[in-house]
DNA sequence: TCTGGGGTCCTAGGACCC
DNA sequence: TCTGGGGTCCTAGGACCC
């Protein structure tokens, strides 16, 4: 075995949402393992959220893809089983896996709810040869937690991630430098991380169809055509990437958006949804101990046209009222009365919420506003998010908070991901 | 009963300043 | 009287990820 500059593991849960649902069902006495039949996790079509979020391996021969509408998925496979998402279960399952992995290295990075990077460099003396240990870890996850993972092993994060994407499920793959020509380069270019829907046709147009084609193309030409993104994917195709595991920079923005079960056509209803979203975003902002300098509103029309407006404030804020009134102003500037399918609020330009010089233009009731927001946050954490709500939501049929993970059950969970 | 939600980063163009 | 030019900030939109 050659000496490796670094040893990086990428652990990827196979069909995460679906695997976690399957494992939970079996633990509760189900006789059918839904991973063995065509099945998907999908949103609620009546609420216009009916898309495939995760799919079992047997759906492959029906050509069902993540993102398909449930309508089209059912056309492809009439006997398809569909289960709703359960974000609380996913958060618990993900945390259990992270805890298990923590035994094998002090350097662990949660990349998403179902992907983890682990730096195994210099850990061999403790736990042994990397491929053997990877098998041990994957078998332990299966035995103790009830779901399967793929593990990719390489000298950097990019190649480890590419390796974990090879054949699934329940597999360990390596992608060391000497294996790049045989294992990576033959793959279609769209399989490369960061080569998405818009880039593929541009690459095809210049005769690039495989990752190998990209690796051997002229980086100057790519840069000319694709700017910095061209340089990035050329490096990736050649296996060049050297970011460390861990040291995730702080969050940059916090947002929530929602597709509404009906088209919003009047200002009053739109305002209520904006308030509901603002309540969630502002609560998350305060719990993260940041203040926001930029407030943004995004809309999606019935015809799927998306657009947004944002504004930078003179004074950073975490006040629900300030964010809401800014959002209303932005909404008023951009909305021409077209039916709306979705609305969103996002705050950015985050700065630490440490004691600061008050601007001359701060409202005099700043502290009273803050005290009120803080009390409401505490009550919602303690008694549930519906314990206190703005009067406009009474009998409106609209939830007083919208967004976050797990809807009303886990209003604060999203901020840990 | 047709198309989610939460993020990050980049680019282009305009405003503004010197 | 013939329209410089660089730097920075801001905003809108797009591309990508899971």
Explain what you see:
By secondary structure, the protein is of the alpha+beta class. 36% of the residues lie in helices and 20% in strands. A hairpin with a 2-residue loop joins strand 5 and strand 6. It has helices at residues 16-27, 70-76, 87-101, 124-127, 130-145, 157-164, 180-184, 199-205, 211-215, 219-237, 267-287, 320-334, 366-383, and strands at 8-13, 39-42, 52-55, 81-83, 108-112, 115-119, 149-154, 172-175, 253-264, 290-301, 306-317, 340-348, 351-352. The two termini are 37 Å apart. Helix 11 crosses helix 12 (320-334). The strands form 3 sheets. It has a 5-stranded mixed beta sheet with strand order 5-6-1-7-8. Strands 9, 10, 11, 12 and 13 form a 5-stranded antiparallel beta sheet that branches. Strands 3-2-4 form a 3-stranded mixed beta sheet, with helices on one face. It has 3 domains: 1-174, Reverse transcriptase/Diguanylate cyclase domain (Alpha-Beta Plaits); 185-237, Orthogonal Bundle (DNA polymerase, domain 1); 253-416, Dna Ligase, domain 1 (2-Layer Sandwich), CATH 3.30.1490. Mean pLDDT is 92; it is low at 406-417. The chain binds a DNA duplex (18 and 18 nucleotides) through residues 16, 43-51, 53, 66-72, 85, 111-115, 193-199, 227-229, 251-259, 294, 296, 304, 306-312, 341-342, 344, 346, 403, 405, 414, 417.
């Amino acid at each position: 075995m050659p000496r490796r500059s670094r040893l990086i593991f990428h652990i990827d849960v196979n069909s995460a949402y679906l695997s976690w649902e399957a494992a939970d069902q079996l633990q509760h006495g189900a006789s059918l393992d839904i991973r063995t039949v065509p099945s998907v996790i999908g949103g609620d079509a009546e609420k216009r959220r009916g898309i495939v979020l995760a799919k079992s391996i047997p759906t492959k021969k029906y050509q069902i893809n993540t993102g398909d509408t449930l309508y089209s998925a059912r056309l492809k496979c009439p006997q398809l089983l569909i289960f709703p998402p359960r974000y609380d279960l996913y958060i618990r399952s993900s945390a259990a896996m992270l805890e298990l992995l923590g035994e094998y290295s002090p350097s662990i990075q949660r990349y998403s709810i179902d992907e983890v990077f682990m730096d195994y460099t210099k850990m061999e003396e403790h736990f042994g040869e990397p491929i053997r240990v990877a098998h041990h870890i994957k078998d332990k996850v299966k035995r103790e937690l009830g779901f399967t993972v793929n593990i990719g092993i390489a000298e950097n994060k990019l190649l480890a991630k590419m390796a974990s994407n090879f054949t699934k499920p329940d597999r360990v793959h390596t992608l060391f430098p000497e294996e790049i020509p045989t294992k990576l380069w033959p793959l279609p270019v769209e399989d490369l991380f960061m080569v998405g829907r818009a880039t593929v046709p541009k690459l095809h147009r210049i005769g690039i169809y495989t990752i190998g084609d990209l690796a051997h193309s002229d980086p100057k030409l790519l840069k000319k055509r694709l700017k910095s993104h061209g340089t990035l994917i050329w490096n990736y195709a050649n296996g060049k990437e050297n970011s460390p595991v861990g040291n995730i920079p702080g969050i940059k923005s916090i947002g929530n958006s929602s597709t509404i079960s009906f088209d919003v056509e009047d200002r009053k209803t739109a305002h209520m949804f904006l308030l509901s979203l603002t309540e969630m975003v502002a609560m998350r902002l305060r719990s993260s101990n940041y203040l926001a300098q930029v407030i943004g509103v995004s809309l999606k029309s019935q015809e799927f046209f998306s657009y947004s407006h944002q504004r930078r404030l003179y004074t950073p804020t975490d006040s629900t009222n300030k964010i809401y009134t800014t959002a209303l102003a932005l909404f008023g500037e951009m909305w021409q009365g077209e039916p709306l399918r979705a609305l969103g609020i996002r705050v950015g330009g985050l700065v630490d919420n440490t004691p600061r010089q008050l601007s001359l233009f701060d409202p005099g009731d700043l502290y009273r506003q803050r005290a009120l927001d803080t009390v409401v946050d505490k009550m919602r954490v303690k008694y549930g998010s519906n314990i206190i709500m703005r009067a406009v939501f009474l009998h409106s049929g609209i939830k007083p908070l919208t967004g976050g993970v797990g809807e009303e059950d886990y209003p604060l969970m999203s901020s840990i991901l």
